[in-house]
Request: fold
Amino acid sequence: MQDVVSGVGASGPLALAAFVGYLLMVVAIGVYAARFSSRGVGEYFVGGRRINRFVVALSAVVSGRSAWLLLGVTGVAYTRGASAIWTVTGYTLVELVLFLTLAPRIRRFAEEHDSVTLPDVFAARFGDEDGRLRMTLAAVLLIFMVGYVAAQFTAGGKAMSASFGLGAGAGVLLTAGIVLAYTMAGGFLAVSLTDTLQAVFMLVGLVVLPVVAFGHAGGVDAALAALRGFDPTLVDPVALGVGAWLGMVGIGLGSPGNPQIVVRYMSISDPRQLRFAAGVATFWNVVMGVGAVAIGLAGRALIPDVASLPGADPESLYPVLAREHLHPVLFGVVLASIFAAIMSTADSQLLVGASALARDVYEKVLRRGRPVEPRTMVRISRAVVAGLVLAALALGVVAEDVVFWLVLFAWGGLGAAVGPPLILAFYWRGTTRGGVLAGMVAGTVVTVIWELVPALDAALYSLIPAFLLSTAAVVTVSRLQRR
Reply:
């Protein structure tokens, strides 16, 4: 992305100043939240269940999107056209339903049983005297989370290199260092507040850029006419096969199984406010999703030949359009929005991984029956966050290809392994502990196998069959155990 690098240089210090200003705000939030988050694990991992409804809504949205929305969806829309909107439709509808149905049940249950992690919820629901349920879920979370965090750091390093000419290694370390600083210090409150700030940056980029880009393309009508001239299917939202449509819409099935989203429901101050949060989150999802698709369409009209993009990569479209069509300050904001997307996912996943090790493995299994002081647990949790950052950095260095493979199925793997057991736990009284364990294992194994078999992977997104088979495993084993 040499063009982007030169673009930043040409923009002078204004773009850099805007970007650095964003980073300083993120670190300041971590410092602000540190005192509150040091009181105990409830404060550190779920903000003491006192998080504002607006913050819950926005942090739930951005923690589930990552740079995939800004770079991936824009790239899909550039390549496939208007049909990319089904990707947005899937997760938007599912998350709206979750806010209105599952979220209130989880929030009330978590408070009644003093649950601060997802394994806490399952253990309180089904009992876990031998610790197998906690250990299994912790293993599933770590399998996907460490690789996902590593990929976010690697993406941040590449974006930093492309934008400011830093070496990729230096960019990775800088990205990891910033995320580590505010996550380790401020815990869930810092992560939620920074996610809210990051949501604003992402929204600005995804609203301003398509408006400006369509203007430079001669208006929406002119851009659509140009797209029809290239390929009429680019402006047809239903111009895709059944398998592709199911794969796009099916992305939404991952939402109920991704802990960084579910834990937001547990943190809200009043479960009655989840309906308001649902409206805010849906509005943000729709505006950002439509904006990402619009950027892809406008970008295809302005840059019809993918070879004109750096590395012939359609996922480079977002920063390239911003550099060419926005004021340097807004270009800095767009660069900040890319890092906002990366950090909002990495920080949330770090907390999920840390809670799995510190709370669920160390405190609840290894130290069962021997209480640990709250402040001691916070110190251990912070140390675990630091350890996970180091593990993610090491994985990114020694197994870069594996990391990016993990990104492709981490969302689906978590959705399939955790989603069906969680939904059935709250909506089917016949669910048993053994059924939950079977569903977690089935969802994980099917996702991995499906991704490894090219013919299966090409036919359908792995999340859909893995989700269905995980559901079947929960129901089958539960029924067998209740005979």
User: Anything to note?
Assistant: The longest helix spans residues 168-216.
